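input
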Amino acid sequence: MVFMDLAAGAADFLDGKHMKIVVTDHRFADLNQERRVVEAAGGALIEGQARSAADVVALAADADAILTARAPIDATVIRALERCRVIVRYGIGVDTIDIPEATRRGIRVANVPDYCLAEVADHTVALMLVLLRRLIPARQLAQAESWSIQDMPEIRRLDTLSAGLLGFGRIGKLVAERLSAFGMRILVHDPHIVPEHAEGVEFVTLAELLARADILSLHAPLTRDSHHIVGAEALAAMRPTAFLVNSSRGGLVDEQALLTALDAGTIAGAALDVVESELVATSVRRALVNHPRAFVTAHTAWLSKEARAELQRKAAETAVANLKGEPRNVVNLATLEA
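output
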């Protein structure tokens, strides 16, 4: 295992000497906040819009730190980095980064774990209400100038329903708090949570969650184990009247299996803020976006004026702090132990 000496040359970074921070890609109107933070520390900010690994290498091979959103930071990129000490992801999830390879190279990987928790929880509940209150067919009736409820699918009172949460981290807990106001029963499956530490929810097995939930909401990180955790088998285990909501990571859902289930009516509908194929248009994504049983938003659950400003500022501050030898939001702790 190869580790860089993060302490070596730290004095140079304290006054910004040789500090080059590269933004591989972003969806912001500008990078003014990042530039202020970096330049205040005496460094230089380089902006790019890389889409491929080759683009990232061309842009950031000599960077001291990287800020990244959706560009792939795979093993080939990390091996090409000449002096990078920290990679910071704009967001909570870090599945776009090859963490084992970064750890082998002694490069810290960090995130911004707390900038949009309320926004994502609010958006998740909004997606749930779109499905449970049948807003999609209701809008279609209005567009067709048909005001007859005879053509509306069945709507259930919310306090008669069970919401299943797959994952019970900070966002999952906020969603549970909001749903409790509707009187809904909250079912949770999360192998990383000790059941005694949560009140007002019922911890169940994954099989029970799929079988009992009237609406299933995903709040898990994307890992090898959770990739496509909602696939054909899981969808078949859900009730035909049940709904699926995903505001977490697109890769949690097998989109082809979901499309098949929606076409067959084996689940009642789905609402997605994330899809697996955000960067490349696919026929499956197009079909989901336009499906009459689906409601898709463009990965905007995190978005608010306040969250966007906080994300940009904190990402830059995290990069600068780590370059100065001050660990902040590091997810591969082995680099600190070394």
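quick obs: The chain has 14 helices and twelve strands.
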